[in-house]
Specification:
Strand order of the largest sheet: 1-2-3-4-5
Largest sheet: 5 strands, mixed
CATH topology: GMP Synthetase, Chain A, domain 3
Distance between the termini: 19 Å
Low-confidence stretches: 1-10
Helix content: 10-25%
Mean pLDDT: 83
Length: about 120
């Protein structure tokens, strides 16, 4: 995760309103659990543990704003994965809408993977 994960609030590009990062929001754990149900079909680790989720924010109205990336810009499910993320997070009780933003800066690399993902992929 990026250093932004430790911020407490910011202004969302999509709406211009101030939002609170999920780690400070009551729905944090449920949103993370939902993100962990989404897998890249070619990689046996969820997208959260792979480090593909760069930022998750939820405002007081239950609107989630998510920045995510792909392991490679030419990923064959590039058009589908944001829909999977939106559907998974939308299923969380209390989340009323989800905005998924695909970003490629900074580019993803293996250093973003959690230890759990490294174990799953045998990448030590």
């Amino acid at each position: 995760m990026t250093d932004k994960a430790h911020e407490t609030s910011f202004v969302a590009e999509s709406t211009g309103e101030t939002v609170v990062l999920t780690e400070n929001h009551p729905l944090h754990d449920d949103v993370i659990k939902a993100l962990k149900t989404v897998y890249d079909p070619e990689i046996p680790a969820d997208i959260y543990e792979l480090g593909l989720i760069y930022r998750v924010a939820i405002n007081d109205d239950g609107i989630a704003d998510i920045d995510m990336t792909l392991t490679a810009p030419g990923c064959p499910v590039a058009g589908e994965m944001p829909i999977w993320v939106k559907n998974a997070v939308s299923a969380v009780p209390g989340i009323l809408d989800v905005q998924v933003n695909m970003v490629f800066d900074p580019p993803w690399d293996q250093s973003r993977m959690s230890d759990e993902a490294r174990v799953a992929l045998d990448m030590w």
